[in-house]
Amino acid sequence: MTTQKPNTADHLIFYNHMHREGSDITILIGIAEIPAHKFFLSEASGYFKTLLSSNAMEVKSGKITLQEIDLYSFRIVLDYIYSGKVDYLFKETTRTSEIFSIIACGQYYMVDSLVNETYQHLENMHLCNSGNIELDLHFAKVIIPYGTDLIQEKVHDIIKKGVFKKLSSEMVEKLMKIHLNVREPVIFEALIAWMRANLDYSHLFAGFLGHIEFHLLDEKHFDMLFEPDRSFCQKLLTEQQKQAEKVRKVVNRNVINDLSDLRIVDGVMRRRTNLNIGSVATYMKDYIVIDLKQQYHLNCLKFELHNDLSYTVSVSKDMHDWECVIDYSKYKCFGQQVLYFDEHVARFIRIRSTEYTPFEINTHIEVLYSTNPLETDPATKLIIPKDNIIPPTALSKCDADSAGGYSEGCVIDGVVRHKIDSGCIIYHFWQPYIVDSMKLLLNKDISYYIEISTNGIDWTRVFAEENVSGWRIATFDKQPVSMIKVVGIQSSSEYLKLYKLECPAV
């Protein structure tokens, strides 16, 4: 039988789940029978979408039995499926424990939008960061069985607030199996604290310690172990060191296949609305550290900045010895960054702000070994472009976005202009380049000059002409450039008009 989408009236009437007209499936929870519509269940719930599209006997019978589920929580979830509202959150009678139970129910039935809205409400109320260890513990118990993404987002709170020490052995086991987004010493110290508080579970200690990468620890951490664990860990350390010495070379392909491969050991993964969108932000430090989980041959890194930043990039095999491969500390960067450097073997990548300010990057990070890297300046590692790096679409607006653009000037009908004796035209690259020329298409009888800058503060005049028209080629000494400023000083009209800009001139 083809499932018909209920009309709006049915939808609204059916909101209280007591109106049976138009229902095509019945949900059984204990003695309760709840009429529902396949369409709405499938639209909002990944669980029901899979179940109702199957040939299961209970689906064919028109009755689905749900086992071991809290009826109250499920009714709230069902209310949300039909109404899209989370009114229960704002009722004074709703207890925090009930909210956590509803989150667990929403996670189980894969009603992601409900979970996200409820979680955001808790964040706004500071319930997930309350300082109340029992409340934080309750929150941890809800998210650990279901949501790896939530675990990674709240792992700092779970570990640093003493919540970890109070978790059950089952929850600790689940956490230890995940590559948590914190440094190995932090995980180790939390586990040791849990072990000392839960001596009755000593038979599980060896298994839990087996998830620790001991070769990433310091000697002082071994001193934290009580006998005979140290001898056990020494054998494990030897095995891990042999494994850690293995190096992969993945050619022309990102070694981070998806978000499950992205481990952040310094920084925090921001909550995202779907699996493809998110951000990584600094957390109480001025840098982010990415763990590739094993060593690779690398010479290229790509990521997108969410804010203006001067930064450095360093790589390491073990987080002890770091080598700087990119130094953009003198340049103001934003948006998409494409970096090439000399080949290195590394597992960890550190992006550090040189201004000691917090920053964010997109979770779509590319790390690879390129067999066709762009030419770079040996001293600065800045790219030396051979082709025009200013896209034709740059003239369509006056807003320097993640792909660069004009930050000063007025765009009218695809032409950038500024009034003589008032203002200027500035084009801002998203990262610095080494260039020595540019090509401009100007209006008639114009006198102008060009300045360049790497930070928007200090400008150097590199070219000037008087009473010229049409295409012009400006050449100057090869040097780093982040911004180009074109200033008209005299014209037969009252404006300098820039019809096209290409850099370098080719």
Automatic annotation (TrEMBL):
Q: Which GO terms describe its biological process?
A: adult locomotory behavior; circadian behavior; modulation of chemical synaptic transmission
Q: Report domain BTB positions.
A: 23-90
Coiled-coil regions listed? none
Q: Which SUPFAM superfamilies match?
A: Galactose-binding domain-like (SSF49785), POZ domain (SSF54695)
GO CC list: cytoplasm
One Pfam family it belongs to: BTB
Q: What is this protein called?
A: BTB domain-containing protein
- Originating species: Panagrellus redivivus
